Amino acid sequence: MASPGSSFWSFGSEDGSGDPENPGTARAWCQVAQKFTGGIGNKLCALLYGDAEKPAESTGNVPPRAASRKVACTCDQKPCNCPKADVNYAFLHSTDLLPACEGERPTLTFLQDVMDILLQYVVKSFDRSTKVIDFHYPNELLQEYNWELSDQPQNLEEILMHCQTTLKYAIKTGHPRYFNQLSTGLDIVGLAADWLTSTANTNMFTYEIAPVFVLLEYVTLKKMREIIGWPGGSGDGIFSPGGAISNMYAMLIARFKMFPEVKEKGMAAVPRLIAFTSEHSHFSLKKGAAALGIGTDSVILIKCDERGKMIPSDLERRILEAKQKGYVPFLVSATAGTTVYGAFDPLLAVADICKKYKIWMHVDAAWGGGLLMSRKHKWKLSGVERANSVTWNPHKMMGVPLQCSAFLVREEGLMQSCNQMHASYLFQQDKHYDLSYDTGDKALQCGRHVDVFKLWLMWRAKGTTGFEAHIDKCLELAEYLYNIIKNREGYEMVFDGKPQHTNVCFWYIPPSLRTLEDNEERMSRLSKVAPVIKARMMEYGTTMVSYQPLGDKVNFFRMVISNPAATHQDIDFLIEEIERLGQDL
Q1: 3-class SS at 132?
Q2: How far apart (Å, rounded) are the C-alpha atoms in residues 304 and 451?
Q3: How much is the CA Rg of the chain, to the nearest whole Å?
Q4: Distance in angstroms (rounded) separating the CA atoms of residues 38 and 534
Q5: What is the pLDDT of residue 86?
Q6: Nearest-angstrom CA–CA distance, 352 and 386
Q7: Cis peptide leading into 211, omega within 30 of 0?
Q8: Could you say which cofactors this protein requires (predicted)?
Q9: Is residue 529 helix, strand or coil?
Q10: Each residue of 183-220: pLDDT tens digit?
């Protein structure tokens, strides 16, 4: 595929013209936004640069100015003397919006009111005085609101109320005290990019209907492959609907590489295939094996050490066992950043074994891939450059809005050969442009969402150094938490030593359990502590952090940090809140 060739699409700028901290640049972007969006651009810029008061929280069920307000003007004169007619949403329906005749003004008015709701939610997401969650049990929500779909349309006033209600009970995943999942935070540039993507509403299968987005995917995936360490960013890749699908792509292509006849003839034409991954790896490897007809019994789990890292000697032992049984080892999936412990498998040792036995090496770096952006922490992925394929989820550690998962493969053309079906109504061979930019035939999907623009625009806004600062801060916060609780009364670490990622795994021991002997009764009682504290967190709405058992270890808290809005004070708050909610257990 030929390079797009223009510096506009690349990352960073020598003159600092893309610097988000440059006030002149920021104001220039605001002027552009105001020119093309009118009141919406004014509101965004006022919020971003402090030219207006913080939006007041709405009260009641009626959206602000929803019942009756002036219709937005679309003329070029600001201010203007155009007559303003009142709009009453109670008498308007979706059929009154564009493309309806005379629909432009009510459309702008309606969208500006939707934007008001969204912007208030955005601002509240960063407000520590607001709840992370307004928790209600499923039956309560079902009884309190009518969620059923009806034959007759509702008016726009009711539609705005539904928008407010939905956000009222949504989890504020951008809140600085939300630590529940690997994907946290709310990046404003990424949010803007997501809005733009939805507005464009196109599909990623051909250049003719997504020209800019296809070019941005080419540029971004190439940059990611360069960072992995593949010479010149060579290879291929695609943005997929999450890390589980990216990992399945790895299994699919590894199988095709070894037995290309499987594409036409199916699994009956190939011998028993075996994949290997660590016992701490993501469950998606087994799901992928089930979906591809390989079978979950053909995924061999390799033992891990006490820190959750794959043991290379056990990997080699299990490979030899499989070969002795006449099976064919076709893939080893190493993990760079396990879901629970945040462990990094020894990639160099795994690469040596894969080379020795001619097995496809995949690295699931969905969680840990972001550390490649940090000069301080990228050593933890040493050896990733020797992989045949990599999963990397920017929607996790890099804070890109969901979803954004990249599957990257070192050998160019392999994805196309594996997946293409030559649909002539999409991929005509006599088009007037370079057909290598029609990327849809190498994907499993036909319809494919535009996921790249969020990452690309954030990268332009932050630069690589901005992502590096984000990641370094989150790792520093994790170390701060570890240093506080490792010797604090009432806490026990799940494993010894400083965590490699932002995963900090620990038990909180209530006063009633601190003098008990370490026996079955104590473990049984301890297993109930984390679930009760978590339930109380959600009912109070103060914070959220995950828990789980693992192997022979009873329920423990797994703290993860990927939100750059979090601070030392938020970590302190979490510790104090766990103690407040658990001291009576």
Answers
A1: coil
A2: 34
A3: 26
A4: 44
A5: 75
A6: 9
A7: no
A8: pyridoxal 5'-phosphate
A9: helix
A10: 999 999 999 999 999 999 999 999 999 999 999 999 99
The residues, any chain, with a CB within 8 Å of residue 61's CB and separated by 6 or more, are: 161, 164, 165
In the 8-state DSSP scheme, what is residue 346? -
246 neighbors 391 (Cβ within 8 angstroms): yes
- 3-class DSSP string for 373-397: HCCCCHHHHCCHHHCCEEEECCCCC
Cα gap 61→84, rounded to integer Å:
26
- The confidence band for 9, taking pLDDT boundaries of 50, 70 and 90, is low
Tokens of 155: 């008016």
Q: Is residue 66's pLDDT more than 60?
A: no
Nearest one of 219, 274, 152 to 12, comparing CA atoms = 219
Distance CA 513, CA 31 (A): 61
pLDDT digits (tens, 9 = 90+) for 289-343: 999 999 999 999 999 999 999 999 999 999 999 999 999 999 999 999 999 999 9
Total Cβ atoms within 10 A of residue 21? 8
Q: Contact, 210 vs 203, CB < 8 A?
A: yes
The pLDDT tens digits for 411-456 are 999 999 999 999 898 989 989 999 999 999 999 999 999 999 999 9
C-alpha of 116 from chain center: 25
Bond into 79 cis (ω within 30): yes
Buried b (16+ CB within 10 A) or exposed e, 520-556: eebeeebbebbeebbebbbeebbbbbbbeebeebbbb
Structure tokens belonging to residue 371: 């550390």
Rounded mean pLDDT, 237-255? 98
Rounded to an integer, what is the distance from CA 119 to the centroid of its chain? Answer: 21
Q: Which helix (H) or strand (E) holds 555?
A: strand 553-559
E strands of 83-235, at which residues?
86-87, 178-179
Strand partners, 278: 302
Looking at 21-30, 292-301, 499-508, which range is the least confident one?
A: 21-30
- By residue count, the chain amounts to 585
pTM of the predicted protein model: 0.88
Q: Please classify residue 493 by burial: count the beta carbons closer than 10 Å to its beta carbon, then call 0-12 exposed, 13-18 middle and 19+ buried.
A: middle
Distances (CA, A) of 276 to 82, 285, 286, 300, 376: 70, 9, 10, 5, 30
202: left (phi over 0), alpha (psi -120 to 50) or beta: beta
**Dist. CA 178–CA 477, nearest whole Å:** 14
Tell me which H or E stretch contains 563. none
Residue 36: its pLDDT value, please?
A: 40
Query: Helices 568-582 and 452-485 sit at what angle, rounded to 10 degrees?
Result: 60
